[in-house]
Amino acid sequence: MNKLKWRETWLSLLLACSFLQGSTSLMILSGQSAVNVPDSKLLGAWTWTAQPGPDVRYTSVLDLELDAEGEMTGSIRNPGGERLAFTQIKQDQHTLELRLKHTLQGQFFDAFYSGKYFKDRISGKVEIRFEGHTIHRSWEATRLPAYPLAGDWDWALQTPDGNELKALLVVEHDAKGIRGQLISDQFQMPLQEIAFSNGQLEFKTRRSEDGSTFHSKGSWQGNRLSGQVSSPSLGEGLKLPWVATRRP
Questions:
Q1: What pTM does this model have?
Q2: Topology of the domain comprising 3-143
Q3: Comparing C-alpha atoms, which of 222, 220, 226 is closest to residue 244?
Q4: Rounded distance, CA 10 to CA 104, Å?
Q5: What are phi and psi of 203, to 5 degrees?
Q6: More confident residue, 4 or 232
Q7: Which residues of the chain are in CATH 2.40.128.120 domains?
Q8: How many Å from the N-terminal Cα to the C-terminal Cα in the chain?
Q9: Distance between CA 205 and CA 117 in Å, rounded?
Q10: Fewest 10 Å CB contacts: which of 18, 59, 81, 192?
Q11: In what order do the strands lie in the sheet with 188-190?
């Protein structure tokens, strides 16, 4: 991979997932018809998933709310849990123009987001300028449901011999918290010690026959979950991949 192509891939990952370090500022700009009254349709949480590689996915969350003075404010939650606050927010009817300026490892990058929002979707394009180069990417965010894990999921684990162990992952996600279980013809295992934050999911299951404990870590990407499971019963350092797809 040549130097420019490597930088483009790297920048795409950084900007789409908000993996920013150092000096960061974000400005949402608009034309002369801009209004200062915040559009309530934009308030809430929005999410998008970036896929910089065939086996790599990252989910970010954008929060927009009103401060004590009634001005729109917000931040981005990246997969690592870091919040990046916006410095200025404006909107022009159903159109957004965003500019992201930051310095990373001593280098300056400039990104221009443009798009339209309608109901539960924001879509548009981003233009990234760095070191005299310009690259273009599409950008789309959807409104984050209050409890995104709720529902039935088709879950499949890749076993060491190349086969699949399939089960139904049933999750209840509401104001009381998260509860769930894995169900198949061979077993029924409740999810224990469940944690979900910034799109990252962790839980444990226990096999009733011998008491073996399995530790699962994964990430949420809309209608898809993916991760790995480890256990002392599987062997030192062995991690088996699993994926789950939400049922319609």
A1: 0.56
A2: Lipocalin (2.40.128)
A3: 226
A4: 12
A5: -160, 165
A6: 232
A7: 151-246
A8: 40
A9: 41
A10: 81
A11: 188-190, 177-183, 164-174, 151-158, 239-246, 224-230, 213-220, 200-206, 192-197
User: Is 67 in a helix, a strand, or coil?
Assistant: coil
Instruction: Quick: pLDDT tens for 113-138.
Output: 778 988 888 898 888 888 888 988 88
Is-contact 88 26, C-beta < 8 A?
A: yes
Domain 151-246: CATH architecture, name and number where available: Beta Barrel (2.40)
Separation between Cα atoms, residue 44 and residue 92, nearest integer Å? 18
Judged on CB neighbours under 10 Å (0-12, 13-18, 19+), 77 is: buried
Would you tell me how many other CB atoms lie within 10 Å of the CB of residue 236? 6
d(CA 89, CA 72): 6
If DSSP codes are grouped into helix, strand and coil, which group holds residue 72?
A: strand
Q: Are strands 83-85 and 121-130 parallel, antiparallel or unpaired?
A: unpaired
